[in-house]
Each structure stands twice: as structure tokens, then as C-alpha cells.
Amino acid sequence: MTAPNEGSTWVFGYGSLIYKVDFPFLEREVAAIAGWQRRFWQGSHDHRGTPEAPGRVVTLVPAPGAICKGVAYRVEHAVFEHLDHREKNGYERHAVTISLSAGSRRVGGILYVARADNHAYLGPAPLPELAAHIARSAGPSGSNRDYVLALAQALRELDDPDPHVLALEALLLRR
What we know:
- The protein has helices at residues 16-19, 80-86, 127-135, 144-157, 163-174, and strands at residues 8-13, 27-44, 55-76, 92-100, 105-113, 138-139, 142-143.
- The chain is an alpha+beta fold.
């Protein structure tokens, strides 16, 4: 595994960090992490919902044997001020090993994950219930539905047919 460069760190994006890149970066590579899967179990009080009516956004949950594709960015440490603010609603930094470029290189890095014990965690629900919740939610960053559709499209571009995300997309498109 390659150590982080002095003054920079790799950050793994698995949700909106894949397609909404509002920060400077030194390198960007398609990447993957092992042992995690996406789930729409985190509440969004600040981007895709409001404090009174939170939306649902992805977090990662442990899943032995699973591979989660995304995008890794090598960023200067100063970028964390922006990322910490962006991911403030229950997300914490977590150290992770990231496989870059289809597994040809492994690097240490971080990702933002919302654990089940955070204040905004909404937890699991049946897919139709998740889709109904997402369909009625919106916040300062736009509709919750648009978040799901943008993520599904970004994952297609990465050739990552995430079944959880695609099932929610299908339910939302039928509404």
C-alpha cells in the first residue's frame, strides 16, 4: 500500500462526491473500497431535506465481501475545511484502504461515513418506503429525487450497477 504524499491525502467519494466536485484536487481516479456498501440510511437536514423534513442520502455500512466503487481524489489538507463542512450532518472521517485504477495501486486515505449512532441517522426501511420518503424531500441543494438520479447516472458511468441505488431509481422513475 502506498502512503499518502506529504501535505495531501486521498479521499474516497461514493455518493455526491462522485459527481458534485466543488473542491480543488491534485489527482482524480476511479477507485474502490472493500467491505462496504451504500445505503440510503442517513438523514439530510442540510442538503436534500430540512431539519423539519430530512431527506435521505447515502452512507456506507459494513458488508464483508462487498466492493464499493467510487472516485478517489488526492487533495491538499486545506481542502478538509470545506469537506468537513460539506459532510457535517452526522458524517465522520474514517481511515480506509483505497484501490485505485481497477486495483492496480492501493493507497491509504479517508472517507466520510455516517454511523448508526449519529444524530441524523434514519436507518433502514423497505425500498418502497425509502422511495416515497425521497420523492417528497427537498432542501437547499435541491430535490432528494435528483440526488438519487444523479448518483445512479454517475455509478453507470463508473460501470458500478449498485443494486440498492438502481432499485430506488427505478421506483422513483415509476412515480
